[in-house]
Amino acid sequence: MTDHALRKLRQDSRLAELAAFPFDFDLSRAGHGHVEPVRLASGGPIEVVAGTGAGGTYFVCADGSMLYADSEGGAGIIGSTVDEALAVVIGLPCWFDYVDLSPQDGEEAILARVAEAEEELREDYGIDEARAELRAALGLPELSPVELVTLLHTALLRTEPDFLLLTEEEGFAYRLLDEHPRPPLWEPVLAQGRADLALLREGDRAAWHSVADDPVRRRLALRAAQFDREDGDLDLLRHLLRRETESSMTDELRLAAVLVGLHGDVTDLPLLYEVRETDFDTHCGLSEIPEPGADAAELLRWAEELDESMFGTDPADEPLATWTELALDQGMTELARAALIRALDEIFLDQSTLRRPGDPARLETSRISWLADELERAGDLPQALRAQRLHATLQETAWDRISGRLAQARLERACGQLPQAEGSLASIRDLLADPRDDSLRHWAHVNFGRFIAEEHYALTRALADGDHLQEARTLLTAADAILGELSGNAAKGVRELAEETAERLRDFRGLS
């Protein structure tokens, strides 16, 4: 199936009228657009091709899939091509009432639901005659309701991650049209690790080296071993543990040490001690590993306690960070992005989830900061900025508020939102002038002050490059004032940047 049917509708007004009424696929509504500006999280193009009387919109995506968005914040793929989607829309005039159906519901239940809904339509519209005429004219196959529900169900499951629809201005994700279960994030992320673990268990030494030589495959294999533990894995775990030291102190290095320790073999204590002493970071991160000479009970106690507190055997218990980080490491960008955006939306909708268990009057905002970092790593600067703006507004001390605004200004500059970045830096200067607490008493003597000055100079250059010369000169004056307050060590690394920025502005003055 292609877009043949859509082209026929556009060429034949009689067919277009039939599609609009009674099948509610109205080409004339395309010119009105959707009820609000929207975009795909992936950045791919979408084209409005039709609308419904209730304010819903049909979009065609770059790969030909048809995305439907209703007027109440729901969206989903309804066909892998336009023709397939039209087969569903025309074959199932009440298709939106069937998004909860799947082939597993059985033929009898599907036919009963469709018959009941269409009987009500037949009281007012001649849908059978119109459907037959459209199918014949558009070259659409005559599929049974069961086949059409199967097409619809398959299409809906393709919506995420590649077709996640967002509001353009706020960046919030549309909810899915259906509530069908999807595989948990860890399943596709861990698939390579499971395959590699099976390969390692076959004992082929060439495979051992190919897996262990690749940092990402090595980490995934260790995660797979975390959730699928076998007594015969000790040798391959030792091999992965030795090689994971190349990445220094990682969660997977700690995991590998725990998995080895859980076998309770005291002959592994020298290896564990050697791993611990790889570098300063591993020494600190694995400081509680028993010393050589400890007995099996002590080794097991250490491994079991750490396993219970940090790992375990259920992938569903792992924090989101484990799977989004491994997804990004494998290039599964859209999979990670969708999960991160959904997590950020949940916080926006209910900030009470940030309350500290032991101190509910205060918020723990590190999760928002982590989301900002991960979204930036995923290349989604607008979403990273959305997270960072929320993070900045929730800070309590002057130091933390400035730190939040500083990261916000950097992202605004990276997104080309230069006036907003100017405003963020202005709020920082206001806080420096009137902090209202004592958290900033040493700001000018440490790297914090250097970072503030550096962002002022970086934005000055961006303003100049954007031909905002007056704003750049004003900000340069403010940057120089901040530099003047820094102590010798803090100012040392900034003076060269200050001179280069001033020279840059002089060059622009000469050009003007």
From TrEMBL:
Protein name in the entry: Uncharacterized protein
Species of origin: Streptomyces cupreus
Lineage top rank: taxon: Bacteria
Lineage, broadest ranks: Bacteria, Bacillati, Actinomycetota, Actinomycetes, Kitasatosporales
